[in-house]
Each structure stands twice: as C-alpha cells, then as structure tokens.
Amino acid sequence: MKQEERTIRFDHDLQIEAYRFHGIMQKFPNHFHEYYVIGFIESGQRKLTCKNKNYVINSGDLIFFNPFDNHACEQVDHKSLDYRCLNIKPDIMRKVAKEITGKDDLPYFTTPVAYHSEHAHLLHHLHQMIMDEITELEKEETFYFLMEQLIEEYCEVAKDIEFGKIEQKIAKVCEYIEKNYTEHISLEELVEICDMNKYTLLRSFARIRGITPYRYLQTVRINEAKKLLEQGIKPLEVAMQTGFVDQSHFSKFFMDFIGLTPGQYRNIYIEYSK
After folding, report:
1. Do 114 and 131 have their domain in common?
2. If residue 144 lies in a helix (H) or strand (E), which one and from where to where?
3. Would you report the helix, strand and coil content of the chain in percent, each value rounded to 5?
4. What tens digit of pLDDT does each residue of 246-267 get?
5. Containing domain of residue 181, as a range?
C-alpha cells in the first residue's frame, strides 16, 4: 500500500489553492464547498455522487464542482487514490472568466465529470508548477489557457433560478442556518421557520439541496472554520467560534470534509504570511 501523503499549497500569484492527495483510502461524506473545485484522478477508482447522481471515475477523468454542489465519494476498487485539485473562490473565478470571455458572469460547469479528458495533462502541468512553487510567467499563461478551454467546453453562464413555494421555504431554512451556525440549532426551530412538519422538511430539504439539514449545518461550519484558520487562528479557538462541541469534534469533521487536519490547513497560510 502507498504511504499516504496530503499536500496543500496556496498560490499567491493565482490566488487559488492546490491539493494533492497521494495514496489515500478516505471516504468523503456528502458535503459542499463555497468555491469551485477542478480536479483530476491520477490513479485509483472512485464512486462519485454529485447532486444525487452517481458516477464512477478513473485515472485521467476530470471533475468539476460549482459552489454549493453537494458531492461525496468513496473507493470502489479497494485501492488507494491519487488525486489533485484546484480550489477557486467565486470572486477569483468571476475575474478570470471576465478576462477570458469579456462578460461579468460566473461560469457554471454543466457536468461534474469529463471522462478521459484531453485537458488532464495541462491541468497536471499547472498543478505541479503550483506544488513546486514556481513563479515563472509560464504558470500564469498555463492557468489562463487551461481556464479558457474548460470554460469554453464545459461551462455555461450561471442562471438565476426562480424558486417555487417549497424552494423558497427551504431557502429560508438555509439562510437561518447560515446566520446561526454558531448556535445549537434544533429541528423544531427549522420547522417553525418553514411551516412544515418534520418529515416534510427533511424530505424536501434533501430533495432540493441534495444534503440533509444537519450535514448542511456542519458544512457551513467547516467552510467558516477554513476562513478563520486562513487568518492563523488556532484550531481550538476556531472550534469554539464555529459551533463545535470541542476541538476533537471539530477536527474529525474537518478531516472528513477537507481531507486535512485543521492544523495542516492553518500551517500553509502561516508559512506564506512569514
């Protein structure tokens, strides 16, 4: 079995994160991110679930997650996974897309998987330059040329969604969770907000958001925790500020969702701030 390695870099030139997971066996639960994820499988096979649809991904396949796309994955071949990805915040994506297309719109990836993509080689090359902390012109050129190709081939402009009554109620529940994630939130509170019974709320929330209210709450907490860790705040303090019972509870969820410990994630930003 390969020795497990988890590496993260933050590229200040591009303002994006790069992850590399080598030899991991970890199952990732259903969750979402507030940023775009563009990744590819170097080796191994995984069952990916994204927005309630299942895919089997292999070496050479690209994956795309828009902000708030719920997704989960697990191994299916009993072999370890080698995986690389870029994480791009919406404001950075908007800026890059505007420079490429001339339009001030957020791109929307229409499919989470591109099988055996011809762009995997270029993505690998860019990712390795970030891992090697290259600051040459070639890195930024490669990034823009890659994004041009991905946007042209796999994206459309994000459209405003007209919500029906049920969707509006679920949106209110999400808004309440996002504003009160540091507090203890009960199902009873959520029921009062949306005027549904408990079962209808749970079923409607999972159908519309692709994730349960509890998992949504934990994901919001983890996303907020990342922002605090990026500021250099210690994991114990972050745990207390984001509604977790204790640091152990926080660390477990962070590792499950992100694939790194809170300390590992915090350290990369501390190194760059020196």
Report:
1. yes
2. helix 137-154
3. 45, 25, 30
4. 999 999 999 999 999 999 999 9
5. 165-273
Contacts 24+ apart (CB under 8 A), 160-168: 166/204, 166/208, 167/208
What parts of the chain have a pLDDT lower than 70?
Answer: 1-2, 158-163, 271-274
Identify whether residues 241 and 143 lie together within a single domain: no
Which CATH number belongs to the domain containing residue 264 in this structure? 1.10.10.60
Per DSSP, which regions of 101-173 are E strands?
107-109, 113-114, 155-157
DSSP string across 153-218: HHEEE--PPPP-HHHHHHHHHHHHHHHSTTS---HHHHHHHHT--HHHHHHHHHHHHSS-HHHHHH
pLDDT of residue 160: 53
Residue 272: the pLDDT is: 61
Amino acid at 22: H
C-alpha torsion 90→133→24→123, nearest 10: 60
Examine the fold and report which residue of 130, 157, 184 is the final residue of a domain before the chain moves on: 157
Which H, E and C letters describe 207-255, residue by residue? HHHCCCHHHHHHHHHHHHHHHHHHCCCCHHHHHHHCCCCCHHHHHHHHH
pLDDT, position 51: 87
Q: Which residues contact 20 (CB under 8 A, 6 or more apart)?
A: 5, 6, 7, 8, 83, 84, 127, 131
For residues 177 and 148, membership in a common domain is answered with no
The verdict on 39 and 108 lying in the same domain is yes
Distances (CA, A) of 227 to 223, 240, 241: 7, 14, 11
Determine the pLDDT at residue 3: 80
How far apart are alpha carbons 78 and 170 in whole angstroms? 38
